[in-house]
Amino acid sequence: MRTDFRPYNGLLETRAFRPAWATNSVKTILAILLAVAFGVATGMGTALLRVQNPPWNGSPEGSATEPPLPDLPASGDPLPKLVVEQPKHDFGYMDVDDEGSHQFVFNNEGAGRLVLSRGVTSCNCTVAEFGTPGSLADEVSVLPERSTTITVRWRADGKVGPYYQTATIHTNDPKHRKVELVIVGEITEALKAIPPVVGLGEISTTETVTRQVPVYCYLDTPSLEILGHTWSRKGIADHFEVSFLPLPSDQLQEEPDAKSGCLLELTVKPGLPLGAIRQTILLRTNVESASALAVPIEGTVGRDVTIVGRGWDQDRGMLTIGSVRSGEGAQWKLFLIARGPHHKEIAFKPGTASPDLLQVELGQSSELPNGKATQTPVLITIPKESPRGNYLFGSEQGQIGQIVIQTTYPESPELRILVSFAIAD
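^ thats the sequence. predicted structure below, dont judge the formating
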C-alpha cells in the first residue's frame, strides 16, 4: 500500500520506506552520470567532426575546413591529364627577413578541360596564386595541350633553420585529385660577423690595437662585397680605422654553410677617453636582403685609472643602480683608482651628467696602503622626488645615463661612466 499520493513512478518500493539521504544520493549519482555521458558524447562528436573535415592539426581549436574538390568530368566527356613539372622546389639558403616565390608549371596533356583550385597550405607563410602572379582567383581552367603556372610565395618569418612547407592544389583529373607542391630550403642570417662583437678588452689610452673579424655571407649569390661603412658615434670615429681584406679560403671553410666573405680589420688609435668604448661600425653591402650589417665594438680604456665599487661592470663601463623610488632617492659610491709612476699627480673633478638630475660629488683623494695607488671616492646621488623616468641599459623607452669626470691624466682628459637606472613612483 502506498503511503503518499504523488504519481506512481513504477518502482516497487514506497516513498515511506526511503530515507531522505538515499533520495538525495540517487539524484546526485544520476546527475553525475548524465554529465559524464554528455561530456563523452560531445567529445566524441567533436573529434568525429574534425576527422571528417580535414585537415586538423591536433590543436583543441581545430582548423578551417579544406576547400571542396572540383567536379569530375561527366561520364563520357574527354578527360584531362595533369603533368606537373618539378612539384618540389629547393630555394637553398634565404635570409631570416627575406621572402621568396617560385612558379610551378601545370600542363594539361589530356583531351578534356583541366580545372585547378586552391587547397590548403601547411602554414600561413605559404600562399598559392593562380595564373598571373598576385591574382586572387581560387580556380583556373587549362585547355587541352595548354599549360599554366601557379606561384607559391613564402616568407622566412624570422625563424632560422630548415624550411619545409607545402601547398595543396585540387584538380578534376580523376588520377590526380590532389597535388602537393613542396618548398624546402634553409633559413639563415644572410650576413654574420663571427664573433658578432669586436671585443677589445681593456686597453691603454696610449696604445694601438688591431683586431680582425671575418664577415660571412650564407647566400649562394651574390658574392659578398662591402660597398661602404659609417660609424654610430661620429665624435670618436677619428680613433678608428677599418679596412676590408679578402677572406682566406681556410677561414671560409671554417664556417661550413658560408658561401663567401671578407675580413674586417679594425685598428684602434691612441687617445680614446677613459672608460667604456661604445662604437658600432655599420657596413653597407651588395646583398639585397641584408644591405646593412651592424658590428658593435666593445672594450674599456683604463689601466692607469680604473673604477671599482658595487654595481660596477668594468668590461661594459657601466654602473647598474636599477629601480629607485622617487620618494626615497638613492646614493651610490664608486672609487677612482690611479696607478702608475705619476698616480699622485692625477686629479679629478666633476664634469657633465645626463640626465641633469644625477648629482656627482668627488671626495678627498687618499693613498692606498701599498703606496702604489690613490683612491678618490665618487658619490652619485639621485635626489628624492626626482621625476619618474627610464634610463635602463637596453630599454627602448629612454637613453641610458652618463657621467663625465674630468681628469689631469695626460693621455685622456675625460672619464665616462654609463649609469643604468629607472625612477618609479
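Confidence is low (pLDDT under 50) at residues 1-63.
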